[in-house]
Design brief:
alpha/beta, seven-stranded mixed beta sheet, two-stranded antiparallel sheet, 14 helices
Length: about 325
C-alpha cells in the first residue's frame, strides 16, 4: 500500500550481490504481505499445514531470507507497532477490499476461470499467530527483530538515520517520506515474476533510491515531499482527486506549501497538520538490540516441521545453506577487526 510516488522518483537497478556487506532494515509487515500474496499454488491457494493454517509467509521468511544472507546481506526485520489513530479508516477500507477479493476469488474458482491469482493475492490478510510465528522463526534463524512503537517504515528509516542500518527495504515509497536516506525495493521478490492477467514473465531486480538525490533532482525540500505525498494520498488520507505525483509536484513547486495548493483547488485534507507532523516526526524508538546469531537448527525444525508440517528434508537443506552463509559472513567481518 502506502503512497505511490513512482512517477517522480528516480530508481537505480542493481544486483542483489551489490548489497553484500550492507545492513538492511526490512519493513516486516510489508514483506509478510508480499509472501502471503505471491507464495501460492496455481489456483491461488496459499500454502497451508494439515490444520488449514496458512504457512506461505513462513516459507518466504525461511527461504528468501536465507537467499539474502547468502548474498552477504545482513537483514533486520522491523515489525509494526500501534498505528496512529488517523489510520483507522484506511485499515477498515483495506479489510473490506480483502473481503470482496476473497468472494471474487471463490466465485472465479467455482466458475473454473483460469486467471485466479490476481483475486487471490488481493485477498491476502494477516491472521492468527502469523506475526508471532514469523518473529520466532527469524529469531531461531539468528536474524535480529525490532519491534517498532508505531509504523515499521518510520522505525526502519530512524535506524538508517541513526547509522544502525544502511538501507530501509520496502515496496512502498513511505520510507523516503519518513526520511530514510536510502531505500531498496524488490529485496525479497527478486527473480522472474508473471505479470497479472498476462502470460508474460519479467525479471525483477532490486532498485535503490537516494533521498538526497530525489530532493535535489526534483528541487524540493523534505517538507515539500511530505506535502506532495499528502496531495497524492497516503495510508492516512485519501488524497485529492485527479492529483497524481506529477501534478502534485508541479503544484507544490508553484505554491511552495500544501495549504496554498488546497486553497486554489478548493479542497481540504482532514488531520492535515497531524499527518504532516507524523511523517516529519514519527513515533520511533532507539531502545533496541541488534545482533546476528548462529541459527538454532532444532528450534527451526520444531517450528516448521513439528508445528507446521514442512518437509524436514527441504528445511534441513535451507538450514545448511543458512549456517554456511552465516559462517562466511562472520569470517568476512572478522577480517575487519
Amino acid at each position: 500500500m502506502g503512497v505511490d510516488l513512482s512517477d517522480i522518483f528516480e530508481k537505480h537497478e542493481i544486483e542483489l550481490e551489490d548489497l553484500a556487506g550492507k545492513v538492511v532494515a526490512v519493513d516486516a509487515y510489508n514483506t509478510l504481505y508480499q509472501f502471503l500474496s505471491i507464495i501460492r499454488q496455481r489456483d491461488g491457494t496459499p500454502l497451508k499445514n494439515s490444520r488449514g493454517e496458512v504457512t506461505s509467509h513462513l516459507s518466504g521468511f525461511l527461504y528468501r531470507t536465507t537467499n539474502l544472507v547468502e548474498a552477504g546481506i545482513r537483514p533486520i526485520f522491523v515489525f509494526d507497532g500501534r498505528p496512529p489513530s488517523f489510520k483507522a479508516e484506511t485499515l477498515e477500507a483495506r479489510k473490506n477490499i480483502r473481503k470482496k477479493a476473497m468472494l471474487r476469488w471463490e466465485d472465479a474458482k467455482a466458475a473454473g476461470e483460469e486467471e485466479l491469482m490476481v483475486y487471490a493475492q488481493a485477498s491476502s490478510r494477516i491472521e492468527g499467530s502469523m506475526v508471532e510465528d514469523a518473529k520466532a522463526l527469524l529469531g531461531y534463524m539468528g536474524i535480529p527483530v525490532v519491534q517498532a512503537p508505531s509504523e515499521g517504515e518510520a522505525q526502519a528509516a530512524h535506524m538508517v538515520l541513526s547509522g544502525d542500518a544502511d538501507y530501509t527495504a520496502s515496496q512502498d515509497y513511505d520510507a523516503l517520506v519518513f526520511g530514510s536516506p536510502k531505500v531498496v525495493r524488490n529485496l525479497t521478490v527478486t527473480g522472474k515474476r508473471k505479470l497479472p492477467r498476462k502470460n508474460v514473465y519479467i525479471e525483477v531486480k532490486p532498485e535503490i533510491m537516494d533521498l538526497e538525490e530525489v530532493l535535489s533532482t526534483l528541487e524540493i525540500s523534505r517538507e515539500q515531499l511530505v506535502d506532495i505525498a499528502l496531495l497524492v494520498g497516503t495510508d492516512y488520507n485519501p488524497g485529492i482527486k485527479r492529483v497524481g505525483p506529477k501534478t502534485a509536484l508541479k503544484q507544490i513547486k508553484k505554491h511552495g506549501v500544501i495549504e496554498a495548493v488546497l486553497t486554489e483547488l478548493g479542497e481540504g485534507i482532514e488531520n492535515l497538520q497531524l499527518i504532516r507532523d507524523f511523517f516529519l516526526h514519527p513515533e520511533v524508538s532507539s531502545d533496541y538490540q541488534i545482533s546476528w546469531n548462529p541459527p538454532q537448527e532444532s528450534k527451526i525444525i520444531d517450528l516448521l516441521c513439528g508445528k507446521h508440517d514442512f518437509s524436514e528434508v527441504r528445511v534441513q537443506g535451507a538450514i545448511v545453506r543458512l549456517i554456511e552463509a552465516s559462517d562466511a559472513g562472520q569470517q568476512t567481518l572478522d577480517k575487519w577487526f
